[in-house]
Model the fold of this input.
Amino acid sequence: MDNQVQKLGLAGSFAIYIPAAILMVVLTKYLIPYLSEVTGQETILFWFLVAGLGIFTPLIIAGWLILKSEGYSCRRSTLAGRLRFGKVSGRDWAWALGGLAVAGLLSGLVMMVVERLTGGFDHSPAFMSFEPLSAGRYWLLLVWLPYWLLNILGEEILWRGVMLPRQEAAFGEKAWLVHGVGWGLFHIAFGWQLLLTLLPLMYILPYVAQKTRNSWVGVIMHAGLNGPSFIAISLGLM
Done:
């Protein structure tokens, strides 16, 4: 199946990354603050709603349309073959957990350097900022959960499942580098401090996904960093 994957070069890759990044910037800079202002609700609520429905759901749709243009249908064989969501072996788990540990360590080091150089660190961009959850606000976790699932599935299906194999066909062993640049561009709306902190994951995750040729590895790493970090922030631990 991998031998039949079409090439996705720089022009094709960034024809997807750039509109996705622009969509993220527009929705986070204009729509989310507007909705928060007119309703009086926290911006984090609208990040969950707007990002889940307006950013990550479109990523899933885009991935499906690309697969359809390639002649694939919605079958289990497409999931395991073309998208590389196959069985997770012990080796895959080792790469995923090892990669997650290295990315977490490097991100922590970047955070420490930024704090030392600037005297502070914004753990969340303005549209994600919120006070630790308190009585009467724990319902936000119920809104966060479906957003989190759409976040992980949207990015891993399109970036790692659909695009990475095609980038490998175009760039060979260097595909993860191109992929990391594009994935970082997608997160430009997060601001330079958080983006710097995320850079280790931006490159390590696609490298490990390419090394293992299993997209579930990306899900494990992405969810393993994204989920616990939000819980820690929401409980006031970060």
The mean pLDDT is 92.
